[in-house]
């Protein structure tokens, strides 16, 4: 189907969501945080940064559930430098990724997916995109409903 903007769906189970809040908008600090996580051999996936507000940002990212303890330890090491740093962990998630080369030339695919998720009462916790794929982090309990709805809507 050449007109279908989505040609495949993939899932990743047992995904944790980490949000680091109240970070100074300072690229040196941000790079030090990601370097520390990398030094601990933690492989992170989806990354999203909120726009700066009054010199502060928050960054969210996903990682395998089994790395939660290591990432908390890594992030806590920055609390001395950033006393108001807040770290939130949410471990009951699955990542669903829709892919299609045609997405880069078809407007409204994201809108169609948002509507589909809303109609099916599926909460989205984190989103990352490229020209040809959209990844959503959702509650694990909603994965079957999400996949079924997407397959039906896009005739996969």
Strand order of the largest sheet: 2-3-1-4-6-5
- Uncertain stretches of 5 or more adjacent residues: none
CATH class of the largest domain: Alpha Beta
Strand portion, in percent?
35-45%
Report the strand count: 6
Question: How is the quaternary structure best described?
Answer: single chain
Radius of gyration: 17 Å
Overall mean pLDDT stands at 95
Please report the distance between the alpha carbons of the first and last residues.
9 Å
Inertia-based shape: elongated
Element-level helix/strand string: EHEEHEHEEH
Structural class: alpha+beta
How many discrete structural domains?
Answer: 2
Q: Kindly identify the CATH topology of the largest domain.
A: Alpha-Beta Plaits
Largest sheet: 6 strands, antiparallel
Q: Number of helical segments?
A: 4
Helix content: 25-40%
CATH architecture of the largest domain: 2-Layer Sandwich
CATH superfamily of the largest domain: ACT domain
EC number: 2.7.2.4
Enzyme class: transferase
Domain ACT: 18-98
Protein name: aspartate kinase
């Amino acid at each position: 189907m050449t007109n279908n903007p989505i040609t495949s769906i993939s899932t990743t189970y047992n995904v944790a969501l980490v949000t680091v809040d109240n970070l100074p908008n300072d690229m040196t600090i941000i790079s030090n945080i990601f370097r520390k996580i990398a030094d601990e051999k933690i492989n992170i996936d989806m990354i999203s940064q909120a726009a700066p507000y009054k010199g502060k940002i928050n960054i969210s990212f996903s990682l395998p559930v089994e790395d939660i303890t290591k990432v908390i330890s890594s992030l806590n090491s920055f609390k001395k430098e950033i006393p108001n740093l807040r770290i939130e962990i949410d471990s009951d998630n699955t990542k669903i990724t829709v892919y299609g080369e045609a997405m880069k030339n078809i407007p409204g695919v994201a809108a169609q997916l948002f509507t589909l998720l809303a109609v099916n009462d599926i909460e989205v916790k984190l989103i990352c995109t490229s020209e040809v794929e959209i990844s959503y982090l959702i509650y694990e309990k909603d994965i079957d409903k999400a996949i079924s709805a997407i397959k039906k809507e896009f005739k996969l």
